[in-house]
Specification:
- The chain is an alpha/beta fold.
- It is built from five helices and six strands.
- Strand 1 (140-146), helix 3 and strand 2 (169-170) form a beta-alpha-beta unit.
- Helix 2 (122-131) crosses helix 3 (150-165).
- The radius of gyration is 58 Å and the shape is rod-shaped.
- The termini are far apart.
C-alpha cells in the first residue's frame, strides 16, 4: 500500500477540546508569568532595599571616617601648634639663659679686670726685649717696687726680666717705703695716691730714649706708666741709667682688660656718632 496522501480532518469536538485545553494552558502560563513577575518585583524591591540600606551604611561609615579624619587632622594641627608654641617658649628660655650666662660672664670678667695682678707673659717680655735690644749692654735699669705690695713686686720682676732679655743691666728688684707727704693736717685736700709705673732717667740722651721706649712699650700694652724728671746717676755705668718704680695698682682694668675696654668705648662712641 502507498502512504496516506492526506490527513483526515479532526472531529470538531476534538478541536474544541484541544482549543479549550490550550486556552487553559495559556491562562495558566499567563497567571504563572504574572505571579512570577510579582514575585520578581517583590524580590527586586527587597534587593533594592537591601542595596539601599547597604549604601546608607557605607555612606554613614564613609561620613564617620571623614569626620574622624577631619577631627584627627584638627587634633594634629592643634598638637603641631602646641609643639611650635612650646618650642618657641623653650627657645626664648634658652635665649634668656644665654643672656644671663653672658651677663654673669661679663660681670666676672669685669671683677677680674678690676682686681687682676699686672703681669707680662713670656711673649710680651720677649717683644719688649726686642724693642729695647739696641740699648743692650750699654744701659742699666734700677728696679724698685712699693714695699709691702706683692702685686707691685711681681710686676717689677716681669719688667726686669723683659729688660734683661734685651741684655740691659738691671739691679735686683728692691722695695721702697712710700710715705704720704703733709699728712696729719685737718681739712686739707686729700691727695690721690701715686699709682702705676714711674720711669725716670739721667739727662743722657740715650737714657732718655730708653726711658721713652720702655714707657711706650708699657702703655701700648694697657699699663699705666708715667715719665718722671731726670735724676742723677748713682752707680756705674754713669749716665746711661733709668729708674723703674712700680707703685700701687691703679683702679680699674689694666693690661689687655684696659685695651679691651678702650676698644669697646671707641666702638660705642663711633656707633653713637652715626
Amino acid at each position: 500500500m502507498h502512504a496516506i496522501d492526506h490527513v483526515l480532518p479532526l472531529d470538531p469536538i476534538t478541536v474544541y477540546r484541544w482549543a479549550k485545553t490550550l486556552v487553559k494552558v495559556g491562562w495558566i502560563l499567563i497567571v504563572i508569568g504574572v505571579a512570577g513577575e510579582g514575585v520578581f518585583e517583590v524580590y527586586l524591591t527587597r534587593a533594592d532595599g537591601i542595596l539601599s540600606t547597604f549604601d546608607n551604611i557605607l555612606l554613614t561609615e564613609a561620613r564617620k571616617e571623614a569626620s574622624d579624619a577631619v577631627l584627627g587632622a584638627a587634633t594634629a594641627n592643634i598638637q603641631v601648634a602646641e609643639a611650635r608654641q612650646r618650642t618657641a617658649e623653650l627657645e626664648r628660655e634658652a635665649a634668656g639663659l644665654r643672656e644671663q650666662t653672658e651677663a654673669e660672664r661679663l660681670a666676672r670678667v669685669k671683677i677680674e679686670a678690676a682686681v687682676a695682678f699686672r703681669s707680662l707673659d713670656d711673649n710680651q717680655k720677649r717683644d719688649i726685649g726686642t724693642a729695647l735690644a739696641h740699648f743692650g749692654s750699654i744701659a742699666g735699669a734700677s728696679m724698685w717696687f712699693v714695699n709691702g705690695s706683692t702685686e707691685s713686686e711681681l710686676f717689677a720682676d716681669d719688667i726686669a726680666e723683659a729688660l734683661r732679655s734685651a741684655h740691659i743691666h738691671t739691679t735686683t728688684v728692691g722695695g721702697i717705703m712710700e710715705m704720704a707727704e703733709g699728712g696729719g693736717h685737718w681739712d686739707e685736700p686729700i691727695k690721690p695716691s701715686n699709682t702705676g709705673v714711674e720711669i725716670a732717667s739721667t739727662s743722657n740722651p740715650v737714657a732718655h730714649d730708653l726711658a721713652d721706649v720702655l714707657l711706650k712699650e708699657l702703655t701700648s700694652r694697657g699699663f699705666d706708666a708715667t715719665r718722671r724728671p731726670d735724676q742723677k746717676s748713682e752707680r756705674n755705668p754713669p749716665g746711661l741709667v733709668i729708674w723703674v718704680t712700680v707703685l700701687a695698682r691703679p683702679k680699674g682694668p689694666q693690661g689687655e682688660f684696659k685695651l679691651q675696654a678702650e676698644r669697646e668705648a671707641k666702638a660705642k662712641n663711633s656707633t653713637t656718632s652715626k
